[in-house]
Each structure stands twice: as C-alpha cells, then as structure tokens.
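Section: Multi-chain targets

For targets with more than one molecule, the full set of components is provided together so that the structure can be written out for the assembly as a whole rather than chain by chain. Components appear in the order listed by the source. The example entry contains four components.
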Amino acid sequence: MIKHYSITNEAKFSFSNNALFCIGTGRMGLALHKAYQDQLKYVQDYIHFSHIRGHGLFSDDMAIYQEYKDEIGNTIAEYNFTYLDMVMDSYLELRIRPFLELGFMPEKLASGDQTVFYWKGNVTPPKTYEGWTSLVQATLRHLMERYGKDEVVNWPIEVWNEPNLSAFWKDADKQEYFKLYELTAKAIKDVDKRFKVGGPAICGVDDVNWVKDFINFCHESFAPIDFITRHAYGTEEPERIGHYGYQELREPEDLLRELQITRDIVDSYEEYRGMDIHITEFNTSYIPNCPLHDQNVNAAYIARLLSTLGDCNASYSYWTFGDIFEENGVPFTPFHGGFGLVANGMIPKPTFWTFAFFKDLQGKCVHRSEEAVIVQAQDGSYRGIVWNLVKNTEPDRNIELNFTLPMSKECCLLVKTVDEKCCNPLKVWHDIGEPAYPTSAQNELFRASAMPAVSTERVVVDKENITITINLSKNALAYFEVFPVDQKSDRGYVYSK
Amino acid sequence: MIKHYSITNEAKFSFSNNALFCIGTGRMGLALHKAYQDQLKYVQDYIHFSHIRGHGLFSDDMAIYQEYKDEIGNTIAEYNFTYLDMVMDSYLELRIRPFLELGFMPEKLASGDQTVFYWKGNVTPPKTYEGWTSLVQATLRHLMERYGKDEVVNWPIEVWNEPNLSAFWKDADKQEYFKLYELTAKAIKDVDKRFKVGGPAICGVDDVNWVKDFINFCHESFAPIDFITRHAYGTEEPERIGHYGYQELREPEDLLRELQITRDIVDSYEEYRGMDIHITEFNTSYIPNCPLHDQNVNAAYIARLLSTLGDCNASYSYWTFGDIFEENGVPFTPFHGGFGLVANGMIPKPTFWTFAFFKDLQGKCVHRSEEAVIVQAQDGSYRGIVWNLVKNTEPDRNIELNFTLPMSKECCLLVKTVDEKCCNPLKVWHDIGEPAYPTSAQNELFRASAMPAVSTERVVVDKENITITINLSKNALAYFEVFPVDQKSDRGYVYSK
Amino acid sequence: MIKHYSITNEAKFSFSNNALFCIGTGRMGLALHKAYQDQLKYVQDYIHFSHIRGHGLFSDDMAIYQEYKDEIGNTIAEYNFTYLDMVMDSYLELRIRPFLELGFMPEKLASGDQTVFYWKGNVTPPKTYEGWTSLVQATLRHLMERYGKDEVVNWPIEVWNEPNLSAFWKDADKQEYFKLYELTAKAIKDVDKRFKVGGPAICGVDDVNWVKDFINFCHESFAPIDFITRHAYGTEEPERIGHYGYQELREPEDLLRELQITRDIVDSYEEYRGMDIHITEFNTSYIPNCPLHDQNVNAAYIARLLSTLGDCNASYSYWTFGDIFEENGVPFTPFHGGFGLVANGMIPKPTFWTFAFFKDLQGKCVHRSEEAVIVQAQDGSYRGIVWNLVKNTEPDRNIELNFTLPMSKECCLLVKTVDEKCCNPLKVWHDIGEPAYPTSAQNELFRASAMPAVSTERVVVDKENITITINLSKNALAYFEVFPVDQKSDRGYVYSK
Amino acid sequence: MIKHYSITNEAKFSFSNNALFCIGTGRMGLALHKAYQDQLKYVQDYIHFSHIRGHGLFSDDMAIYQEYKDEIGNTIAEYNFTYLDMVMDSYLELRIRPFLELGFMPEKLASGDQTVFYWKGNVTPPKTYEGWTSLVQATLRHLMERYGKDEVVNWPIEVWNEPNLSAFWKDADKQEYFKLYELTAKAIKDVDKRFKVGGPAICGVDDVNWVKDFINFCHESFAPIDFITRHAYGTEEPERIGHYGYQELREPEDLLRELQITRDIVDSYEEYRGMDIHITEFNTSYIPNCPLHDQNVNAAYIARLLSTLGDCNASYSYWTFGDIFEENGVPFTPFHGGFGLVANGMIPKPTFWTFAFFKDLQGKCVHRSEEAVIVQAQDGSYRGIVWNLVKNTEPDRNIELNFTLPMSKECCLLVKTVDEKCCNPLKVWHDIGEPAYPTSAQNELFRASAMPAVSTERVVVDKENITITINLSKNALAYFEVFPVDQKSDRGYVYSK
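Its structure, encoded as tokens over all components, is:
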C-alpha cells in the first residue's frame, strides 16, 4: 500500500501533545524497590515524564497509618512517614512529581476486610470518616513541611480508584463514593485552598452514568472539583490460559468516542466547561499478563492514541512505566505481558519508543492522519511520527508513506524505526528459548535487540519541495526528522563510502 | 556471489586467537586526559584487552627525568613519578597492564634536539648511556615498589620504537640502536632477571636486514632477548590533501608474507626457534588522518588479519584504542581518519566490533577460510566471524555464505551485523553535515547508529545437520552463534508475532 | 585509671578473628529494597563480610512457592524465582554469599496460620513434608543452575530459626523440629552431598537441653550434620515504653560461659568433636527497638566479644548490618534502637567501627586482655584494638592504657578513636531535636559526626622499645597502629607545624 | 586569651560575601586532565563556585590557533576548537562558568619567543594585531554558537595577565598593553556589545601607577571598560631551598590597604565610580611551592580576608582550586606547598574549609571583628565563622570567644572545627614519613584526617539571651550555627548518653 501526502504552508491541523504529563506505576510500596527505581531512572533519562500516579499510598506496606492504645485504653492514631519520604525523595531526585491517588484503606482504618489484588489492597470505606480525613490532612501537611508548601500544592490529587467496580470499592456504592469524595476534597482544601482535587477515577464500566451522576453531585453539593479523571483501555474481554490472558484490540475510534462522551458531559455544565480531564490510566489491555503489551502492535496502537488524546484531555497516563508490579502476583518470566514500558532486565519494549518519539514532537502541526502526525519546529525542520497499525484480525500489510514538504535547502532525512524485525526483544527472547531467568549476557542481548534502527540520507530539493518516503512493515513505528544541512567539510576531507 | 561450506567433525583447522593480548595507544602523557580514560574504559568494558603499549614513557610531559645543580655545581638527576603513578594506577584500575616501550629521550638527557611528531618526542641517543640506564632502572624499581615485584616483572619491555626510520632514531643508526638495546636489556636484567625484554620494534622499511642483523647481534653479543617485536601496516604511500592522507589497501597476503619472513629468520637460529614475536603495532594505514580507519572496509580487513596473525605471532597490537592522539596535531573533527577503535564523542567505529567479536571466538576451530573463521565451543555451540572485504579497487559485491554444521537439536541462529547501512556512524556524521563540534544530541545519534544489528531465528535440523545462511553486503562483518534451544514456556504462554 | 602492659617477644596469646565471616539481615524480601542495598553496599565497601544470613527465604513476599489447580482439580506446586534471583544477584555483586536459613513456611504450604513479626512469617510445620523438601530441593537446584554447582555447594545451610521458642516454631515442638531437620538435611544431601547443613538455630532459652537432645538425635538417627548453630544476646529482659524497650547489659563473661557449654556438649561426642559452631545471631539486645544499639557502649561491648568469640566458634553473625528492618513494624525515626551497623540515612553507628577495626586485625597475637587485643603483622608493625566498657550500672571512668612494645626503629603511632564526644551521631541527632524525618543536610551532618577521630604522632625509641599511651574516655573504642617510619623528605622540604 | 562580645539587635555591621563568585585554576590545557576534573568536581560538590579563571586559553596545548600555507604560498589561519569544547563542556557540566582570561600568545602568532613557566606560555605581543583580534573573535563566536549567545555574553573577559611584570608581558611595556587592551576590547564589543570586558590584571608591583595610567588611558581613548581587575597576595619575598620557597605572611591590613588604593583611584573618576573591581587572583603566597599553602594558618588568614574583601571588590578569586598545576614543573609529592584547596589524592586542605564555611554565611551581618563574622539568617538562627590567626613571627596563643546573642528559645550550638590537631592532613603525611607516592590506603587516611571535627550541644536561654563559647587553638578556624530546637521525641523514646 502506498499513500501520498502533500504538506503545504496553508495546512490547518491541530495537535496537543500531553503525552509526557503523567505515567502510571504499580503500588507505591514497590517504589521502595531497587529494581523499580532503576527502571524509573531509565525511563526518566530517556523520556522524562512530569508526574507519576499509582495505587496504594495508604496501603499497609507503606506503613503510614498506625494505632496504639493509651494508658486509659483509648485508640490513638499515629502516622509513620519513613517510607513515604523514601519514595517521595526518590521521585523528586528523578525529577518526577506525584499525581497523588488517595487510597486504598489502611487495614486498621477499614470498615471491612474486602481486598483487591495479590497484594491485598483494602477497598472498604473507612470505619470513621474523621479518621480518614485526618490521615489525608496529616499526610499532606507532612509533605508540605518536607518539600515546601508551594511545591506540594501543585501535586494533583485524585480521590480513590475505579469506585465503579465492586472489586475496587465495596459494592461499587456510588453514594458512599460521593460522600468519600466530598469529605476528602473539603479536607484537602482545608489544608490549602491551592490544592487541585478531582475524581471519580472510574473505568469504562457504566461510565456514562457515573460521570453524569458525579458531575451532578458536585454541581449540587458544591463539593470542590478541579478536574475530572477516568481510565480508558483498548481491549475486549480476555481469554485466560495458565498465567496469561489473551485479548483482541478494540478499534481506536471506539475508545476515543467513549472519551468524547465524557468530555461532552463535563462541557454541558457551564461552570465545568473546558475543565481539565485527566485520563489517569490508559493502555491497550487492562490486565498485567496480556502478551500484547510486549509486542510491536502495542507501540503502533499507542502512537495512534497519542496523536489524538490531547484533543480533549489534559493528560493520559500510560499504565505503567515498568514491570515491577504485583497485582496478579510476581511475574514468572521477564516477558509476561506486563504493562511496563520497560521489561525486567531493563529492556525497553517497543512502546517505550512511542513515548520517546512523542517527546521530540514539539512544534506547529502540519499534518495529522490515521497513520501520521507531523510538526514543524521553530528552526524550520520537520519532525514526524508514523505507524502501520495492523490488528491480529486484519490482513498483514506494509505501507509506504510519501510526504512532500516545502523546503528550500538541501536536507537530511533521519529515520528511527521500531518494527517486528529490527526492534523486537520479545522475539529474541522467544527464539533463544524463552528463558525464565535470563543471565546478564542474555539481558544484554535483549537490550541490544531493543534499540530502534537509525538511518540517515540526504534529500534532494525539487522546486522548493522535498519528497520523503517512509516504509513501514506490519506494526512498524517510525520517527523522522527532516532538517536543512549546511555542510562545511574540514580542509581536505573527502567523504567516501 | 554464493559460497557453500560443509563443516564436518573430521575437519582439521587451526586458529590461535591472540587478538586481545595488546592494544596500542597515543603517547603516555595523554593517558592523563579524562577523555582518554573514558574511551579506554569504554573499550575495556566491551572488549577487555590484557596489555597496552604506546610511546612517550620518558617524554617530557611525563616529567619523569629532572636535573638540578648541587651546591658545587654538579648536575644531579632526580626522578618524578607523580604522573607515571597516575597513569599506571588508572591502567590497573581498568584491568590493563602496560607493555612498556622505553622511549623517547628526555630533553635534558638527549644528545641532540631532533624530534618527531607535533608533540616533539626527542629521538636522539642519550648524552650518556649511564644516565639512560639509571633512568630505566629507577623507573622499574619504582614500579616494583608501588605495584609489587611479582606483578611488574610480568610487564613486557620493548626497547625504543622504529629505530629503522631516521624520523624515530637519529640517522636510523643501526649500531647505535644495538648498543642502546644491549645496555638497556642488561640494565633491566640487573634489576630483576625475570623481566622479559625485546626489540627491535621496527616497521616494514628494510625490515629483513634489520631483523637479521638484530638477531645476529644478540646471538653474538649474548645480549638478553626474550622476544622479537616489529610492526605491520596494510597500506601503500598516502596522497595528502589538506589535513588528510588517502591510501590504497595492500593485499592482506602481502602483509602476512612479510611477517612470515620475520618468523623464518627468527626460527633459523636454534636458540631462538619458536621465540615469541609481538607485532607491537598494526593497522591498515600508518597515518592518523586516513579516512579509511573510520570506514566499514577497515573492520573487514582487520577481521581478515585477526583470523591469521596468531599463526606465527604471540600478539598483534592494533594501533590504537582511541582518538585522543596528537601525532599530527589535535584533530579538527570527530571523524578524521584517526587510528582509534573509538572516535571522540565515545563513538565505536566499525573496527571496534571486529575486536568485540573476536573476544567471543573461543573454542576448537572447525572452519577457516578467506572470509570466515568458525569455532565450536565446549557446550557444542558454534561461533563464527565472517566478512566481505571489498577494496576500493575491486568491484562491489554481496556474498551469501552457507554453512552446513553437524547438530542434532533444534537451534537458534544469532547474528550481529556491522555493515555500511546498519552500523556506519561515519555516514550519519556526513549526512547531517560533517559537524566539527557535534552537540551531545548529535553524539548520541552517532552512537545509536554505531551498534550492530542483532537478529535471531530458529533453525531447523535436517538429518542431524543444520544449514545457516549469512548475507554480507559490501564490506560487511558479522558475528554469529548457533546454539541448541530447549524451550520451556511458562504455563499458558503462547508466543505469537 | 592507668594500666601498664609490657609486650615481649616471648608472649603467648591466641586470637582467632572470625568477625567478618557472617553478618545478619532483616527478612530476605527487604533485600529487594533500594535503601537496603545501598546500606549493604556501604557496609561491604568499608568492612566486606563474607556471608549474610537472615529470615524469610520462603516467606510469601519472596513469592517462591505457588500453587494452581490443573484441569482435573489437582493442586500442583510451581516455583517462582524472579525475586530470589534479584536478591542473590545483588548479594553476589556486593561480593557477599548467603548463609541460607531455610524458613519460614509459605502460607500455602503451611499446616496452620500462626505467624511471627509485623511482617507475619508463618511458623507452622508444612502441611506435607514432601511439599517442603521439594521446595528446598527445587530452590537449591535453581541456585546451582544459575550460579554454578561448585559455587552454591559452599553456601552453608541452616534449618529454620529458633525452634526452641514457640513464637518461631509452633509449640516449640522439639520432635517436630528434629523431623523437619532430618528430612530437610537428607533432601539437601540428595541434591549434592557437598552441601554443608546445620541446626538447631536456637536462642538461649532452654538451650542446654536443646543442644544435648539435638546432638543426641543426630547421633542416633544418623541425620546429616556438618555444623551446630545457635544465637547469643547480651541483655536481660526489656522494660517497654511506647515504641521502645530498655534493657540492661549482661556481663560479657556470662554470655561467653553460655557458649562454652554448647561447645562442651558438642565436643563430648567423639564424632562431633571440634565441629564448627556458628553463632548465627548475636548482639547486645535482642529487640529491634533498644536504644542501646545506637550508643557507644554497644561498640565497646561488641569489641569485647569479638576479641574472644573466635576461641570456640567458627563464626558469629552480628544481627544486623542495617536498619531496613520490619520485625516490629517500620521505624518512626532514624535512630530508634535498631540492630543495624548503619542507621537509615546511611549513618554508621559506633558499632560499625568495631567491625571496621577488627577487619584490620590480622597477624600474630601479642596481647589480649579484658580491654585490648594486639597483633603484630608480618612487616613488624603492631595493630591493636582497645576499649573502655562502662555499663550503665557502673561508675563512669576514663582509662589510660600504656603498652611497651619491642621496636628498634623510629615509629609512628596512628590512633582512630570512637567515643561519646567525637563519634556519636545519636547525640547530634538528639541535640538538634530528634527529627523523625531528617533533611538531606541533617543526614550529612550526622554522617560528618559519625567518623572516627584520626591522629598520628611520632614515637621515640628507648632501648629498642617504644611506649605508647591510649586515653579512653567512657565507652571509648580505639584502633591503633604502630609502624616504622623511614622519612625521605623531598629536596628542600622542611616540615613545620 | 578570652574575648567577650555582646550582639544586640541594634548592631550595625555590613558584610558582602562574594567568596564564591570565582576560583582560580592552572592553565586551561590541564583542564583536559582527569585528575583536574575529579578535583574540580570535588570542590563543586562541596563549595560550588560560580566562575573559574586561569591562564593559557590560547597557549599551544589548547591547539586553537593553527596556520597553513595555501596553494599560492599565503599563510592562512585556521582554528581548532576540539579541546576548547572539551574543557567548556566539562566546566558547564560541573555548573561553573569561565571568567575568560585572554592569553597567552600562540607560538605561531607571537612576535617573539619569550616564555613564562615550565609549560612555556609565550608572553610576547602578537606579530599582527589583526591576527590576534581575529582569533579572539573567532573563539567568542564559536562559544556563542555552541553554548548560546545569551549564555556566553555573561562570561566576563579579562585581557591578558600581569602585564606589569616583564615575566608575563615583554618588557612590561605599558603602552603596548594599552594597545592590546583597546583593540581587544573593541573587537569583543564588535562581536556583541553585551560582553563585559576588563583589565589590567596586574599584580602588586608598581600597581598604583599602572592602575592610574590604565584608567586614564580608558578615560581618554574611550576604550570600552566594564570592570577593573588586579591581584593580591599576602606574603613577602621567598627564601628558596631545593624545590621549595619559604615566605613570611604580610599583615592582612597591608594587603587590604593596597586594594583600597585601587578602589579610590577608580572611584576618583566620575564615570567609573563604583565600577566593579575583580581581584582575579589572591592567596597568601604567590609561588606554587610554598609550604604555607598546606598549613592551618593559611585557612585562618584567608578567612580574615574573606570577611573583608567584599567591602570594595565584586569578587576575589582564590588561586587555585586544585594542585594539578605545572608552573614550576610537576610536583614531586602530594603536599608540596601548592596553591590548591585540594591536594593531589583528593585531600581537602584546611583552606578548603574556609570556603566551604563561607558558602553557608548568608544573612544579615550582626557582628564583624578581626577574628569573627556572624550573620543572622532569615529563620532567626545565627551562623558565624571565627579564626585565631597566629603568624610564625607571633607568640603562640589560644583564644576563647564568648558571644552573647539575643534568642528566646532553647537552642543547639553546632561547631565545625578545623585546627592543627583535628584537621591537619599535612601533619599526618609528615608523621607517616612524607611518602612521595602514597598508596590508596594512605590517601584514605589523609582524607579521614582532613575533615572538620563536628560537635553539638544544647544551649540554655538566660533572659532571652544565650551565651556561646568557642575555643580556638593556634590557627584554628571554626564555623558555628546557633538554631532553635523544638524537640518532639518519638513515643516512648528517652535519650540517654
């Protein structure tokens, strides 16, 4: 398949690149782990996200909420911020700020014993709301004392996670959530009015009703609300085999349509019109053991989403940066369909490069289509990302994209390609026998096979235009730059191949 | 061009892999530089050479030899080992030992003022031989005190550099060199008999006569001699333009024949038969500004040599590991035809991979030809290096090599390819405009384009044999491994592309 | 108080320095933590222990033991070594080997639900012993495959922890432990006869009977036994206040006498005479919240023990290297009476230096007393450690120790002092207000105040003897060296104060 | 000697702390050295200077200025910025900016062959001024292209070094210097008017006349001038023995008076009144082999100067940060009286701490005297530096300083002491025998003995005042802080010594 596009100076395209505002992470207690920190450092060195959001701030492995009995037998709360400080210190050292998710319930503060995940996050309402709001306030005040008020008030705060699922919030009790939300939001504003707080952090199940009712509740109760949050995933129900779940991709347009509805509901209220919506989780599959996550098709699918999600959302947080993650238990193998951009062993997966490429996509949009987005930077150079998304259910195809771009000087075309042949560590891992416990030499091999192929060539100018061609095999993702070249060879130097 | 080879268990091939015994370096004073140390660390991390040899141990920037006048006006020598210790400390920290080259002459100890190179190494005999031998002995005694006698006596010692050229030894005075050699060798053995000492460190000019006369001199004078040293380069006279020199490659066989003659002369003396010959310098071109060094053809040519040089030589020291080098002055650009395996900016050149690949070639040789050498490791796997050497004067060609190897289990073929398309940082540097002073982002791009392409595939066994095919474009170099695979998939895991 | 000692060449003293054979650690799952690894690296860089022993290898946070149901409903065990490899990789990278303690029981393999500690280690026997021995064997076989058989068979193995306490082993059931021991030891030897295995890992409660019965059991049942293990602590029962426990020190001699009895029991069996005894845990207090651990008196007390424990024990493992430790929950403050040699914030406590000093005590013992041990190294220099142990119940005192040592050349005396004034980070932390969450600047201050004071002076020789004086304030610990000086001043250099 | 001072809230003191604006360095070519960069990193990590100034930007080891002959025999200049970029990249990575000193003369551009120093800086005027200004402009333009215009125009530029000495400028030819200054300053402003340029960079010889004449020249010629530069040293003529020079300290007041005269001359011109004066070099001794530099007295003397120099100078650049320095040749020993704050082997000298202490002296000055300067920080705490300067020619003395400070809350007094007993690596080096080539263990010992002694104590409030006492032995330097303490002990925690 060959497609031709002509870019002209009159072209009118818009593109909002919020891809690096936030990234997801496994539960906060795992942020104490060395492997977690090493992977996060790797991600930050290459990509540099601004915020990080994950579960379990108040879960018991963080050890924040404690109780004891005083001499006369009263139960007294006390707070332990030893581990919280370790986590926050390490985040800030890596130049990433928390997007705080308030949850789950400390066991001693919980009204029940229902838990979620292998790591047993308690998902019941607090036994007393006063205990809960005191915990929230004490935590925020501690953070402000340690990191500075002016810094901490800029950390967005989200109340709970997916209360629309009974797995995450007892009975998916909507009124109970609204109560939690209102009391929590007010408690936060009591600490400092400048904090930004939002909800309802729902996923796609019964989402329309939840968003409507939540907005309406805020509207009527005057509960403070600074932004709306929700999640979005791109797959259907999984088929489970052994440790794994296999899923089909949804059409990207389906997912985008779902989000547009949320946008429309919010905008239907005058006082909330244009309010920020943060997609605090998104990915293709929503299970941490879906082989799709490790494949090249995932990279292309996410590129498709990143080209569009900024149209109506302030951020969209890929779930997650790395594979130190225990929701289903500890993975048995390095490639196991985990959410991470980086596999254990410090191996960037194809989707890692989707984000690394979008990092460099800054400038005026000159083209956007279903397989490409191109901007022109201030210095006149072009930067584009292109992909060839081929879902399992579709026939294989290669595509060739031709772009004619206005340009008056001799240029260089730089292309970085991520495809199933040149940048596919999963295949290498499979080909050498799917070792569960790779040696360090094997990990080095995986890393060597996980780097984009880089190529350059000089491009001829024809009538103040240049034409470039990008070949994309099945599920390929590519980044390109076209920039003017002003060669000044050293005295006597003659380049020859 | 397609070539077929069948490997059988009866095959008789020999292959001595001494590629990592020694590596060359610019003058020792440059070892004080941070960029030098960074490049050496990079080389050691990937390749790990055992020894390092370069000029200028006694040149004035090392500041070892000093003189002062005492109260009654006598000139007294004193020695300063401050910089020597810095250099040796850093070498040993990088797990590399010096192959000591004694030279050049400290200005204050010199009999004349003739110098060589931009950095002005004095190449005249000592004003007194007693001053010289005292300097040598004091230096060795200091090293033994600091690093331990048993360690230092294992550092090989070579007397001077290329005395057969008048540029390196005043008038190329053979008798004066023999005197220098004899007195120095005896002085060394006086310090400790266990030291190994050798010469005459000549290059290819009038080499037959020099080797004959030197061996004869040792034979007759009973001068101590533990090994023979000489140099070997693979190019003709250069044509000079501006900062550069352009050269044609010699036939590898020419160079190998030259070295065989040296071997034959040495072996013609009963007492010296089989004595170690160390090629203390070799490369394609012998000038530090020959663009050839940066090209892929260099990698293929050196592979050809490394497959054979061990037949009659104990070591062969590629000249040099890095491009911090000043013989012709300071380079104006990162790619400038320097000798280094690594270009400034920490960019591995194609030839870097030749050595990285030979590092892994350990085992029983099962095949050796003009474009390949293959060994079988103890675990039954095969490891090979193949190349497609196409000199400028020859027509372009691709070759396809088919090897049929005995093997009874399912296998994986791993190939790492270095060719003009996939691993050619010189081309990328040219394509983006030959920047003399690359930014750190440009250097990152060069490094990304300097990595071998890695691929794996499963290989089918047919009648206890497998057949693998390696495609080599012009001047390509490739490393491959064929190893048995015993796949144990995790419960439920189904690999799919 | 002043004490004089004359050392003569005829002096007969013995001293076995096994202080660095093993060090304790919190549960193995904490070895995944970054702060744990950072502290262990700090300890290894300064002290370098050979082995490390801690609880929780099989506890659920290590995630090794898993079960699933197959199609026909049978429960099948499967093993997950992902985290085990991370821990072992990191240990070996820090050049420390595990002293494997087999325990506690994975929840799914347990026969009951009794747990110990905040982190809930299950202390019940296995539901089936076959399940247990399969787990042990699978784990050892995995380790051998990853790290090499010849390496892993040298890792000592201890069966369970303190089965003589009902808190650690259900009902402190002696016969059940013997069964566990026998089956486990045999299962280990089935994997490889070269493994060394031992028990009963008891503490001081009813220890005489337990040791006797255990030895007797092995004697009669022919259960394999390569070494005996037990624990030793130097404090009485604690008084508890809030998060803390306060204890009095026992006389060191009491503790040593207790260990001598164990030695005597073992030696009373001909086949076990002289068998290695490993004290797999020792410290002053046995609770992780005893302020004693952070004080200077602890350093002096441990020095006293290290001077003697090697007399009848192959090793004695200080419990523990660092303060990432959760037995009583997560500590609320950096100084909290934790076991660690290093406090959170990377602050070496006084006892850290006890081990750092014993590291350098290699040579022939020339003096040992209740406050000193001195050796002469091969080069003739002396190295000593001295202390002034003043328990809370004793009157304060300073002591001055004079040693007259045979020496014929001018000497230098080097002293490193750790006392309550010069090396007492606990006091600095207290003086600045006992901050629970120190800033990085405060941690830097604590570290600066946690370094020994270093002093040197020239010592005069009088009749082939020198006399040195070491002043020790209350609970001071000092290391000294006396070594010959051969001053060679640089030309013209005149030292002046 | 005891001195009492009462601080009141009404006290009027001024203190300008410009101690960290600039630091000196050996010639720029040495900035390529690893040891140089390691030392600079150490200094920046602790102290963090803003600018760095040294000689030799245009000297031949930087290799910037080159010439060649074209086809018709004309000599053409070309510039090589390879090494300059390495140096500037490394400076900026260490967050330090150059204070550019333009000099010395490249050999090929020089009008004569007179040189200065062991490293042979050419000190003659250019053979053509056009060649010189082209070199200056090309260099600045290159820097602007690489590091950004807006960045580089903030790098101050000084023309030449000490032209009032014939050693540094042929014949100390004043008119020739004025010509150089004027043409250079104009050439700089031609590149970008925003550059700040200054001179005459003189030392104390005939300084009054030089300053007057220079100012007058600028006044009359309208030569651009943005600041005045000069040097200041605190010692008399040296007595030379072997490799060393021994000197007596001048009274600090002498030196300060000298600088006041310069200030007065500048201020006597209306258009120059209040113009910045940069002391681009200062120290006690002006020779790089004066043992004084390594002693504690140097630290006290420099503290005395830093307390006052900001009164009339915009900066004062200590000469130099480290001991990688070759003006007199390469040092034979680690302690050799070099200028550096850090001795080779990464050993901070006492004067290192003078700067580390002044770094923290920010706030409102509440006391300044001949032995102390104290500020009150915004949070109400006090920070002071005190010293006890005892020159060789004076009798020994200890002093005790008592300060009564207004304060209403319980306080902690923190003191960091640097004196001849507790922080004197020179003495330790001497005591162990003055080793010329220390082992790494010896260097570790020197570093351990080069750290300030840290102590804390609680201070009692009496009538809203506290009184603190600082004891200073001979040549001691101390930093103290007095800050309020608000102790919140953990539940149950009872601090005991």
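Residues 125 and 176 of chain D are 8 Å apart (CA to CA).
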